[in-house]
Design a protein that fits this description.
CATH superfamily: CNF1/YfiH-like putative cysteine hydrolases
Largest sheet: 6 strands, mixed
CATH class: Alpha Beta
Strand order of the largest sheet: 1-15-7-2-5-4
Strand content: 25-35%
CATH topology: CNF1/YfiH-like putative cysteine hydrolases
CATH architecture: 4-Layer Sandwich
C-alpha cells in the first residue's frame, strides 16, 4: 500500500472533507508521472485507477465513493439535494470507452450538494478549481473554472444556485481558489477577451508588451465578491501550474502530453 498523499487543503475549509492533488505520489510513467488522476488521458487505465484509489484513501474514502465530473467547459451546475435522491443528476458510466471499470459521473463543470456521504471529483491541468462551503446549512460546492467557464461567470452561478436550491446567504459562504495557470504565464488571444465581452463579464488582465495575460484567480475572486461572498472569506492558493510543472500537471506548458490533478470535496 502506498503512503498517504500530501493533499493541498484550505484553512477556511478545516473539518470538511476536501483536497487538491499535486502530481506526486502515484505510479504513472512519464509524461503522466506520477499521480495522474485523469482517465481521459492516454495513461494506462490500471495506473490511473490505482492513483485514484490512493487519492480517495487520502480523503478518508474509497474510490467507488467518488462522483466524477464529466467536464463540458461550460457553466452548468449539477444539484444534489438530500431530499430528492431520485433526481440526482448522475449516472453509472465506464471510466473510458470500452472499459469494464465504472464510476459515478455527472455532466457539468460545477456541483453543489447538501448530501452527507457524497464526494465530488473534478480534474484539471491549468484550469482553476474553486471550492464553496456554507457551514450554517451544510452545503458544499465545487467548480472547474477555465477561461471559458470564467467568461461565463461560473463562480457567480454556483453562489446563486446555492441560494436558490439551499437558501444559502452569500455572506455566509467561504470559497477557495486553487492552483491553475497564473497571470505570470497565461498569455491569451483576442478571442478570450471577446468571450468575456460576449457574456458580460470582466476579465482581470495583465499587460505583457504587445500581448495580455489572463488572471484567472483575480477574475474569479471578483466574480465571487460581486455575488456577495466577503473578501476575507475567499482563500487563494496563488500557485501557478505553468511555473511549477515539477509539482503540477500543465496542459499548456507540457504541450498537451500530461496528466490531470483533481480537486474533491464532500460532506
Amino acid at each position: 500500500m502506498q503512503a498517504e498523499l500530501d493533499l493541498l487543503r484550505y484553512d477556511l475549509f478545516a473539518g470538511i472533507r476536501h483536497g487538491i492533488s499535486t502530481r506526486h505520489g502515484g505510479i504513472s510513467d512519464p509524461p503522466y508521472d506520477s499521480l495522474n488522476l485523469g482517465f481521459s488521458t492516454l495513461d494506462d487505465e490500471e495506473c490511473v485507477a490505482e492513483n485514484r484509489s490512493n487519492f480517495a484513501r487520502a480523503l478518508g474514502i474509497t474510490s467507488v465513493e467518488l462522483t466524477t465530473a464529466h467536464l463540458t467547459h461550460g457553466s452548468d451546475v449539477a444539484v444534489f439535494d438530500a431530499t430528492t435522491p431520485d433526481d440526482w443528476p448522475r449516472a453509472w458510466h465506464p471510466v473510458r470507452a470500452g472499459s469494464r471499470r465504472f464510476t459515478w459521473v455527472f455532466e457539468a463543470d460545477a456541483v453543489i450538494s447538501n448530501v452527507t456521504g457524497l464526494t465530488f471529483l473534478l480534474t484539471a491541468a491549468d484550469c482553476t478549481p474553486i471550492f464553496f462551503l456554507d457551514r450554517l446549512r451544510g452545503v458544499v460546492g465545487a467548480a472547474h473554472a477555465g477561461w471559458r467557464g470564467t467568461a461565463r461567470g461560473i463562480a457567480g452561478h454556483v453562489v446563486r444556485h446555492m441560494t436558490r436550491s439551499f437558501g444559502t446567504y452569500p455572506a455566509d459562504l467561504v470559497a477557495g481558489i486553487g492552483p491553475s495557470m497564473g497571470p505570470c504565464c497565461y498569455t491569451v488571444g483576442r478571442e478570450v477577451v471577446d468571450a468575456f465581452e460576449t457574456f458580460g463579464t470582466r476579465p482581470a488582465l495583465v499587460a505583457n508588451g504587445d500581448s495580455v495575460r489572463l488572471d484567472l484567480w483575480e477574475s474569479n475572486r471578483v466574480q465571487l465578491q460581486a455575488a456577495g461572498v466577503p473578501s476575507d472569506s475567499i482563500e487563494t492558493m496563488g500557485l501557478c501550474t505553468g511555473c511549477h510543472v515539477s509539482d503540477f500537471f500543465s496542459h499548456r506548458a507540457e504541450q498537451g502530453r500530461t496528466g490531470r490533478m483533481a480537486g474533491a470535496i464532500g460532506l
